[in-house]
Amino acid sequence: MTSRKLGSQGLTVSPMGLGCMGMSEFYGARDDAESIATIHRAIELGVTFLDTADVYGPYLNEELVGRAVADRRDRVIIATKFGNVRTPDGGWRAPNGSPAHVRAACDASLKRLGVAHIDLYYQHRVDPTVPIEDTVGAMAELVKQGKVRYLGLSEAAPATIRRAHRVHPITALQTEYSLWARDCEAEILPTVRELGIGFVAYSPLGRGFLTGAIRDTKGLAEDDTRKKAPRFVTGNIERNLQIVERIEAIAREKRVTPAQLALAWVIAQGGDVVPIPGTKRRTYLEQNVAALDFRLSPGDLDRLNEAAPVGVTAGDRYADMSRVNL
Fold first, then answer.
1. Residue 174 CA to chain centroid, in angstroms?
2. Cβ(83)–Cβ(95) below 8 Å
3. Given CA atoms 223, 42, 114, 150 in this order, what sign does their dihedral have?
4. Phi then psi for 50, rounded to 5 degrees?
5. Which CA distances in Å does 281 have to 22, 138, 177, 216, 274?
6. Mean pLDDT in residue range 132-161
7. CA-derived radius of gyration, the chain
8. Which of the residues are catalytic?
């Protein structure tokens, strides 16, 4: 498998990563054995860029990833995040970007992962009450201490990215990007490209919707967060299915799955873009990886851009958009 440079500070990753969040929370029941087998299979296939966060689980996903890579640490790039804070019952508190929290969160993540250093450390969400200079300054100290190799931000606005980058080079920005989430193309992508920052596309399959497997939310587990997500609710999901149907039609012509077509589109957006589709099953992992072998022509890209133009998706990405793009 080839590799992609993520940012201009020297980090090289597989051209597709593996999002591990759903292995522990949000998308139905857990199966740790299958999840670990999926991580092992990913490494066998050359997918060595693993994405997690302290709050997934909450706090269980890092432990899972740590167990999976304990005997193969030198073969993976581990990315994790801090800044989102959970309550003991799994609820959500305001983001915390204070220097004290940065230090404590990093030490806790290192312990859960069972590693000596984190390869890529993101601020998961910007804390509007703490200057980004203070947060990134504390993150930079972690680099000096050898606890972290590279720094990243998630769901940050262009002005915030620029301010952060002046304090310490930012290697990667992680933001949702797919055929049904293209708002980052207007300002965020141009900003990170100007600064030499890599782009990590999370939810490149639209939380599974672009696979075509979800026609309604009736079959989803009761604790599946998509049941209440704006783009999946009645009134929006019917409109969004029209996007999927157009993608499915093109996929049939190309003899690939809708998921592979959607991933190929993200991969084709530039050599600085790395999608991290999430799955907890080896079958879907192998299907996703096969998208790396599929090339889209300029005409194919034009058709997909017409099938899913910017702004066509019905509903916000999150029920509460106040925590993104700050």
1. 6
2. yes
3. negative
4. -105, 130
5. 10, 37, 22, 21, 20
6. 98
7. 19
8. 56
Strand positions, DSSP E, 124-177: 148-154, 172-176
How many degrees, rounded to 5, is the angle at CA 155 between CA 283 and CA 174?
45
Whether pTM > 0.70 for this model: the answer is yes
CA 241/CA 209 separation, integer angstroms = 8
Of the candidates 170, 258, 179, the residue with the CA atom closest to the CA atom of residue 213: 258
Question: Which residues face 93 on adjacent strands?
Answer: 85
Tell me how far CA of residue 75 lies from CA of 50, 63, 119, in angstroms. Answer: 11, 18, 12
Task: Indicate the average pLDDT of the chain.
Answer: 96
- Taking only the tens place, the pLDDT of each residue in 20-34 is 999 999 998 899 999
Cβ neighbour number for residue 86 with a 10 Å cutoff: 15
Q: Is residue 323 over pLDDT 90?
A: no
Q: Phi first, then psi: give them for residue 102, nearest 5 degrees.
A: -55, -50
| 195, two tokens | 């600064």
Q: pLDDT band for position 322 (50/70/90)?
A: confident
The larger pLDDT score, comparing residue 183 to residue 323, is at 183
